[in-house]
Amino acid sequence: MEWEDEWWALDKAQHLLACLLITLLVAALAGRSRHAFLRRRSAAIGSVASLFAGAAKEAGDEIGLWRSAGGSAKDAVADLLGVVLALIVIDLWRRWVRSTRRRRGEDEGLSMV
Q1: Ramachandran angles phi, psi of 72, nearest 5°
Q2: Rounded distance, CA 108 to CA 113, Å?
């Protein structure tokens, strides 16, 4: 792993965006599952999938699978930042959906009627 690459390089933005999108996509797919345990953990599943993809890319860089200067710890930080931003988006989305349902009078829990 190296620390000598630029913080503001294009590949850092690519890492951030890729991990953000992977997290959102996998979380959305898990959230649509018929299995409740997957739906409840959709954000965590998306995060793990994204971090796994980022780690696999860095491991491939380090062992020379792709043409690059090697694995970069800064790329891993960009991956982590992408996941954190995705989790913020997911949380904001869930809060918005919840407040919209409350305004419409839809209840998320069981009704006594």
Answers
A1: -130, 130
A2: 14
| Per-position DSSP letters for 46-104, written without gaps between them | HHHHHHHHHHHHHHHHHHTSSSSS--BHHHHHHHHHHHHHHHHHHHHHHHHHHHHHHHH
Residue 63 CA to residue 76 CA, distance in Å, equals 16
Residue 11, token pair as written in the block = 């590949």
Separation CA 31–CA 34 (nearest Å): 9
| pTM attached to this predicted model | 0.82
- Give the per-residue pLDDT at 47: 97
What pLDDT, on the 0 to 100 scale, is given for residue 109?
A: 60
Distance from C-alpha of 3 to C-alpha of 23, rounded to nearest angstrom? 25
